[in-house]
């Protein structure tokens, strides 16, 4: 059976992982390649690398890093951050990335999703959606790293990008992100039921039970976390063993 | 050994080259007719869309060359599908080397079939040292049904061809270059054929 996927997310700045990482057995935890190798050995099913640098000059560094990651890692990985044109994607895919994730650029220019899907195939186009709930607005899509509210209702936007050719949705709840109180199950389930492509739940993971809820209750196909794994509050082998006892299909 | 990866600007060429590099093998990237023809072994990667990949092959005259090759040949993912007769993706005529169709998943499950799934009924030297139900990484929306050329199968939810062999043409729907140590072993097995 197809397994549920566990995905650590690494933020990259100037070619280095940010967020202090506690790894005693890693020579250099700021080195994304070292960290990625460690995660692959731990049983991560995929990795996501987000470039949080701003300038074009620094982005060139990121493309070189992507090449270095692809050279050393034997599991799939997605890269995102600051992608706004077909040419950006071409560079990253040629460097060896398996998928790219686009967010604000898709909101600015939805045609980009269609162009990417036609050019490179839907399988490598992940659309990342940052969403926030307020009583007044319901679940809305936010742009520019969650700073700008858009007109889009979250489920409608997810359906739209899938129609345009997105092959996967990475859904981050801003309400839950950083809380360690669990994933946003309601909106994750609503999106997962509304689209025909896989959905990655993101934001709020704090315990193993939260992952089980994301997979069982919210029907997510994959779940992503960052600091929970980086600070080793939860190790992937323990998490997967637990999920298996809960009857969730995982790769061990 | 002279190993050539067919480079037709439509594939996961770089990842396959890196995976071979991790095995200590240097492969040549080429779309040149003579270079490919003279190779000891040929790997044919691919991701993306069938009709544009066929257009890239035709533009390089490779649609004529590939069916005539006699050395061990390994098609990966879209590279496997392109070896077949016809694809429902874009209603595309393929290379026609293996007399099989390529169909779209018709299922309530999520499509693309994306992630790790199990290899079963392994029956080829390609899977030497690989245990039944080993996991491999997949990402695809179209599949090749089971046939007499199937040498491994995977279920989503119905069984389909995870790998094929037809004469000297081997092929895998999954990505050995992204399937961890098991994937490396499968590439190694191909190199040893």
UniProtKB/TrEMBL annotation, chain A:
GO cellular component terms, A-Z: cytoplasm
Reactions catalysed: 5-[(5-phospho-1-deoxy-D-ribulos-1-ylimino)methylamino]-1-(5-phospho-beta-D-ribosyl)imidazole-4-carboxamide + L-glutamine = D-erythro-1-(imidazol-4-yl)glycerol 3-phosphate + 5-amino-1-(5-phospho-beta-D-ribosyl)imidazole-4-carboxamide + L-glutamate + H(+)
Pathway listed: Amino-acid biosynthesis; L-histidine biosynthesis; L-histidine from 5-phospho-alpha-D-ribose 1-diphosphate: step 5/9
Gene3D superfamilies (alphabetical): Aldolase class I (3.20.20.70)
Record-listed E.C. numbers: 4.3.2.10
HAMAP family named in the record: HisF
Family from the record: Belongs to the HisA/HisF family.
Name of the featured protein: Imidazole glycerol phosphate synthase subunit HisF
Species name: Pontibacter lucknowensis
Organism phylogeny: Bacteria, Pseudomonadati, Bacteroidota, Cytophagia, Cytophagales
Gene name linked to the record: hisF
From TrEMBL, chain B:
Record-level GO cellular component terms: cytoplasm
Keyword Ligase assigned: no
Its EC number(s): 4.3.2.10, 3.5.1.2
Residue span, Glutamine amidotransferase domain: 4-191
Coiled-coil residue windows: none
CDD domains linked: GATase1_IGP_Synthase
Gene Ontology terms: biological process: L-histidine biosynthetic process
Pathway note: Amino-acid biosynthesis; L-histidine biosynthesis; L-histidine from 5-phospho-alpha-D-ribose 1-diphosphate: step 5/9
Subcellular location: Cytoplasm
Active site positions: 77, 175, 177
GO molecular function: glutaminase activity; imidazoleglycerol-phosphate synthase activity; lyase activity
Alphabetized UniProt keyword annotations: Amino-acid biosynthesis, Cytoplasm, Glutamine amidotransferase, Histidine biosynthesis, Hydrolase, Lyase
Reactions that this protein is recorded to catalyse: L-glutamine + H2O = L-glutamate + NH4(+); 5-[(5-phospho-1-deoxy-D-ribulos-1-ylimino)methylamino]-1-(5-phospho-beta-D-ribosyl)imidazole-4-carboxamide + L-glutamine = D-erythro-1-(imidazol-4-yl)glycerol 3-phosphate + 5-amino-1-(5-phospho-beta-D-ribosyl)imidazole-4-carboxamide + L-glutamate + H(+)
PROSITE patterns, per the entry: GATASE_TYPE_1
Database matches in Pfam families: GATase
Keyword Phosphoprotein (UniProt): no
Spans traversing the lipid bilayer: none
Subunit structure: Heterodimer of HisH and HisF.
Function: IGPS catalyzes the conversion of PRFAR and glutamine to IGP, AICAR and glutamate. The HisH subunit catalyzes the hydrolysis of glutamine to glutamate and ammonia as part of the synthesis of IGP and AICAR. The resulting ammonia molecule is channeled to the active site of HisF.
Name of protein: Imidazole glycerol phosphate synthase subunit HisH
Organism, scientific name: Pontibacter lucknowensis
